[in-house]
């Protein structure tokens, strides 16, 4: 069956043959008129575009995908959009991919268990690459991603394997900075509020924090570590748990801003304590709510626009390398954004 | 060129012919093994799946898209993910589409101007339908969408045209309920804080609010109408503007929760006023932050899960109607969620 014949069997679609007939040009001229880099005279292109507009014709990428094996679609695997940080990152990524002439085939995944079938579905559309911000660090996930044999770019991930590149925020470095700031503010009883155990970015923040406290001469062996799950409620509940255990911190570094907001509210509402007067609080992500006046939260900005730009570079290199698997890592500095919660004044 | 030959030219992909050879079955059996509803013996299917797994074969949807003109991809056009409401709605929609065997081809659009080129790109992938939550109500957008000649489902939109169906929150009805609650709380100087002018859902909320105030015997002619842009900052600034004009409201209904949070913070921080003691505040969307203890904001829940379910129904009907354009509207009740900001107690 010829390409032509196949196009005609498609429902609703006006074909390039129709446009060629009306414009009085060859079918190849129609195809060149819609290819950004193809050679075609301005006059012929104009005739084609006019004919296309009159017929409501829109170029069909499907035959080209079939012939080249490249779809110009990138599978974007997401989860946890309730965190404004991920929503903003997705928006920026969608814009950057589109500017590079790539489309986003979006897949929502709850956990590592549903990732496999999600990837199968994406692959049946012959996606060129995968980009994901899922905080899944297991070896089986790395294996599943490597087996796709297409470029994979992960954000804030410790996944390692052929085909897998990562763009990470300098999580460890930010932890160091947080500890030094607490030391400067005279904190003597710091607490670390961790995100989910499987989240390796959170772990790196906590390790950096310990490292920095040790440097500042604080007794890290006594450091209280709280377990949160990245939600506001888990931050709120963690504070109540602390007080039940009779621990009275004067500084809390939270692995993300959502939990830090919960911490601030619990301190004020349940303990009658104010931040920063009684407790110095820091978060991570610099979500919009960190700047809301009820929180005025010191945080770390991951510079998602830079992280997305690095991811686009990695994608470009990996797609250019064709069948050769690349594995690169970029680290982007996280910027300390000081606000009232660490007593920097207004 | 045969389908077979084309498949072989695709980069990296193992073909169904390879699987058929290893499994010792026909190519058609391989195809049936990967079609959910196809007739095939359990034994044959097992042989095919084992061979496919050993080769790393994944079915290729592209030839089927070319032949049938159906891609099982839905173009989802989004904007404004900084509002947690839209982020949650997108997540729910992505899950629902996937459960229906449809994929999300995501397109981020800043405004009506970029919508046209976005739609062209989506159409070149032969998407089956479009779903959008863009608050764009212009006639030119309605025309552009109708001309696609594929089903379009809009959320909270006043767009009208062939092929266009809408799922709306009962915005007018919620406005009525807000006015009645203010009347019960003894509000005598209410203020309406509107979203962007082009946002027809916001307009309907404001009209319902006026309607309800009139019913309650309040002088609607004097109603102060503030113009916001759906952001926290615009709510914060609106309050400062009010005080400059020497208007002292005792009730503010905000077209969304983000602005209402800004209102609460400005009242407390700049005017030293507390909510609900001095001013009763209501929002719309019931975003997670409405429940955060610093805001404790009474709001309207749009029940996105119901709205998404209705959208899926409309999509199903419209896709079933093939080339016949459907135009339907579903309205979903918005539920009042009373919290502290309207003095309902804890």
Automatic annotation (TrEMBL), chains A, B:
<protein>
    <submittedName>
        <fullName>LacI family transcriptional regulator</fullName>
    </submittedName>
</protein>
<keyword id="KW-0805">Transcription regulation</keyword>
<dbReference type="InterPro" id="IPR010982">
    <property type="entry name" value="Lambda_DNA-bd_dom_sf"/>
</dbReference>
<keyword id="KW-0238">DNA-binding</keyword>
<dbReference type="Pfam" id="PF00356">
    <property type="entry name" value="LacI"/>
</dbReference>
<dbReference type="InterPro" id="IPR046335">
    <property type="entry name" value="LacI/GalR-like_sensor"/>
</dbReference>
<dbReference type="GO" id="GO:0003700">
    <property type="term" value="F:DNA-binding transcription factor activity"/>
</dbReference>
<dbReference type="InterPro" id="IPR000843">
    <property type="entry name" value="HTH_LacI"/>
</dbReference>
<dbReference type="InterPro" id="IPR028082">
    <property type="entry name" value="Peripla_BP_I"/>
</dbReference>
<keyword id="KW-0678">Repressor</keyword>
<dbReference type="Pfam" id="PF13377">
    <property type="entry name" value="Peripla_BP_3"/>
</dbReference>
<keyword id="KW-0804">Transcription</keyword>
<feature type="domain" description="HTH lacI-type">
    <location>
        <begin position="14"/>
        <end position="68"/>
    </location>
</feature>
<dbReference type="GO" id="GO:0000976">
    <property type="term" value="F:transcription cis-regulatory region binding"/>
</dbReference>
